[in-house]
């Protein structure tokens, strides 16, 4: 195009040269165009340079393999399952020698589910995409999780996960922000049309394992929960982007720590079709029998969006107990709920020692939610008299704007919520109405002044911790779901 412009200029030049002013103007234009072309070429040159010298993949283990060494083709069409299986088998030979790294270069690497091995690093280069085959015939079935006794959506076996691991130690999934893409669209459609007879599989599921690190990658379009560490110890998830459509991507939770101990989730961006994070520990009588809590979990520095459910949830499956959870420096934006604890009679277990600190709500319908009638049960075998205990929950530094109902703590006679603390809260509301700080069967305290004004159920203390007024109506009910 620029070439054509130059030719046209040449045609006009003879007639215009008669005039000094136009000559000056023409020279000025020619000068300007040349500088523009020169700059553009420099920028293009830089881009070509960047493309040709892709970021080298760091060597993180004594040995590194390239997935292409095993016959994989990154054309988005070739089935690379056997290549991944051969590669993992090659990596497993080095488990006693510091393990090995499997590099996945830029490309679209289509595969059915495969298993990881211990002492393995899976490294996804920039623009590397592992694509899950979206035909359930390629997805192996597995027995139900013992603490769920049930597939979750259907009784009986469930689909395994695209990337799976059991009884592993020392596994790293990392990269230069490469992607694992579950191609969930087909699964979500089939689920909605009731064409599936088994529970959909997660994108990444690591079970009964320890020393797991997942960083610097993107996970997207999971068929079901995205990242599911199950009964694991010492798990770090850092700097991970998790994406799924915010509507009509059913059950695409971001990260679901389930009966896990010693876990950190930090510096992540999550925008999905269900809970951003949901800490769990098994379901009703199966979870009680399995009896493995989620404990010592630190969640910080996240930006989360959940239009269907909540930014950070605890439950509703929590029958093995959940305790010592810290949730801090979290922004939840354009979401239905910000943080939620959900449970029901029949769950048993407990949720205690939960600390929320420095939460920012930006355009959420309900900020803080505790719900005790989330009545979803695996089968008729649950014991409704098995009630969970909810206690020692604190909220410090909660701010934000554009919130309709800042607080809704809906305890009940059987499941009262005990020892809740609020300190330093100011949330801008969209509704200048009463009943926006809703409570029922909740005992606890407010330290200092908070906005909006708390419900009558809570005791009031001053900033120095001196009692100002003890509530006489902890069990008063002021819940309004119509707001
Ligand atoms: C992997 O192999 C492909 C194809 O042979 C090559 O283009 C790429 O540079 C290799 N990557 C690494 C990290 O060895
Ligand atoms: C992965 O490992 C699990 C547990 O050992 C096994 O049941 C399953 O068949 C394996 N899946 C594949 C695809 O090899
Ligand atoms: C997060 O990952 C991106 C892409 O891989 C990288 O550029 C960035 O430095 C990482 N940040 C941290 C804090 O690890
Ligand atoms: C990683 O990739 C995702 C998806 O393409 C993008 O949204 C995100 O900003 C990237 N992260 C970094 C740190 O570059
Ligand atoms: C699901 O089960 C029904 C009834 O047994 C059967 O007709 C149908 O073919 C099954 N669908 C799939 C996808 O397996
Ligand atoms: C936790 O896992 C990391 C990564 O494998 C490891 O470096 C660390 O030593 C482990 N911590 C404990 C206490 O085992
Ligand atoms: C994530 O990426 C950053 C920047 O490249 C790097 O410093 C960090 O070590 C990476 N994290 C891991 C665990 O590889
Ligand atoms: C609670 O969890 C934190 C991690 O968030 C951990 O550092 C601390 O030791 C745990 N407390 C107890 C009593 O185990
Ligand atoms: C509170 O969290 C925000 C991000 O959500 C962060 O920028 C800020 O530094 C945090 N404040 C404190 C005191 O940690
Ligand atoms: C109430 O919870 C706080 C933590 O939020 C804890 O420090 C305190 O000990 C608890 N009080 C009682 C009486 O258990
Ligand atoms: C509130 O209800 C709980 C049981 O749900 C009961 O233990 C407690 O005594 C009641 N408190 C008051 C002030 O009535």
From TrEMBL:
<dbReference type="Pfam" id="PF00295">
    <property type="entry name" value="Glyco_hydro_28"/>
</dbReference>
<protein>
    <recommendedName>
        <fullName>Rhamnogalacturonase A/B/Epimerase-like pectate lyase domain-containing protein</fullName>
    </recommendedName>
</protein>
<feature type="transmembrane region" description="Helical">
    <location>
        <begin position="21"/>
        <end position="38"/>
    </location>
</feature>
<keyword id="KW-0472">Membrane</keyword>
<dbReference type="GO" id="GO:0004650">
    <property type="term" value="F:polygalacturonase activity"/>
</dbReference>
<keyword id="KW-0326">Glycosidase</keyword>
<keyword id="KW-0378">Hydrolase</keyword>
<dbReference type="InterPro" id="IPR006626">
    <property type="entry name" value="PbH1"/>
</dbReference>
<keyword id="KW-1133">Transmembrane helix</keyword>
<dbReference type="InterPro" id="IPR024535">
    <property type="entry name" value="RHGA/B-epi-like_pectate_lyase"/>
</dbReference>
<dbReference type="InterPro" id="IPR051801">
    <property type="entry name" value="GH28_Enzymes"/>
</dbReference>
<dbReference type="Pfam" id="PF12708">
    <property type="entry name" value="Pect-lyase_RHGA_epim"/>
</dbReference>
<feature type="domain" description="Rhamnogalacturonase A/B/Epimerase-like pectate lyase">
    <location>
        <begin position="65"/>
        <end position="111"/>
    </location>
</feature>
<dbReference type="GO" id="GO:0005975">
    <property type="term" value="P:carbohydrate metabolic process"/>
</dbReference>
<dbReference type="InterPro" id="IPR011050">
    <property type="entry name" value="Pectin_lyase_fold/virulence"/>
</dbReference>
<keyword id="KW-0812">Transmembrane</keyword>
<dbReference type="InterPro" id="IPR012334">
    <property type="entry name" value="Pectin_lyas_fold"/>
</dbReference>
<dbReference type="InterPro" id="IPR000743">
    <property type="entry name" value="Glyco_hydro_28"/>
</dbReference>
<comment type="similarity">
    <text>Belongs to the glycosyl hydrolase 28 family.</text>
</comment>
């Amino acid at each position: 195009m620029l070439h054509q412009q130059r030719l046209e200029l040449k045609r006009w030049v003879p007639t215009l040269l008669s005039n000094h002013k136009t000559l000056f103007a023409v020279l000025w234009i020619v000068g300007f165009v040349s500088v523009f072309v020169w700059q553009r070429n420099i920028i293009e040159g830089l881009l070509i340079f960047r493309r040709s010298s892709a970021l080298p993949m760091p060597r993180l283990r004594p040995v590194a393999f390239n997935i292409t060494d095993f016959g994989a083709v990154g054309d988005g069409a070739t089935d690379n399952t056997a290549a991944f299986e051969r590669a993992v088998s090659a990596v497993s030979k080095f488990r006693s020698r510091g393990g090995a790294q499997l590099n996945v270069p830029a490309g679209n690497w289509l595969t059915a589910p495969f298993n990881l091995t211990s002492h393995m690093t899976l490294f996804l280069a920039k623009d590397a995409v592992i694509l899950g085959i979206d035909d359930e015939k390629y997805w192996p079935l597995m027995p139900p999780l013992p603490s769920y006794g049930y597939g979750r959506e259907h009784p009986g076996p469930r689909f395994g996960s695209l990337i799976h691991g059991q009884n592993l130690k020392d596994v790293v999934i990392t990269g230069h922000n490469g992607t694992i893409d579950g191609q969930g669209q087909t699964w979500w459609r089939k689920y909605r049309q009731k064409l599936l007879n088994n529970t959909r599989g997660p994108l990444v599921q690591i079970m009964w394992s320890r020393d797991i690190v997942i960083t610097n990658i993107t996970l997207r379009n999971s068929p079901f929960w995205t990242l599911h560490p199950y009964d694991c110890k010492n798990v770090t998830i850092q700097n991970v982007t998790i994406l799924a459509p915010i509507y009509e991507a059913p059950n695409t939770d971001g990260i679901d720590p389930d009966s896990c101990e010693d876990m950190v989730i930090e510096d992540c961006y999550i925008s999905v079709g269900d809970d951003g994070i949901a800490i769990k520990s098994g379901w009703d009588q199966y979870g009680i029998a399995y009896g493995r809590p989620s404990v010592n979990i630190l969640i910080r520095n996240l930006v989360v969006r959940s239009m269907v459910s909540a930014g950070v949830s605890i439950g509703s499956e929590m029958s093995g107990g959940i305790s010592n959870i810290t949730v801090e420096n979290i922004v939840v934006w354009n979401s239905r709920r910000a943080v939620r604890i959900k449970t029901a009679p029949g769950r048993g277990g407990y949720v205690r020692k939960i600390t929320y600190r420095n939460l920012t709500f930006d355009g959420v319908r309900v900020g803080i939610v505790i719900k005790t009638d989330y009545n979803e049960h695996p089968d008729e075998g649950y014991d409704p008299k098995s009630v969970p205990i909810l206690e020692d929950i604190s909220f410090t530094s909660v701010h934000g704007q554009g919130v309709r109902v800042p607080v809704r703590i809906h305890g009940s006679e059987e499941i009262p919520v005990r020892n809740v603390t609020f300190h330093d809260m100011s949330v801008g509301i969209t509704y200048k109405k009463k009943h926006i700080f809703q409570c029922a069967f909740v005992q606890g305290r407010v330290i200092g002044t908070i906005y909006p004004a708390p419900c009558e159920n809570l005791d009031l203390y001053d900033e120095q911790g001196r009692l100002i007024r003890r509530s006489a109506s902890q069990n008063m009910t002021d819940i309004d779901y119509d707001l």
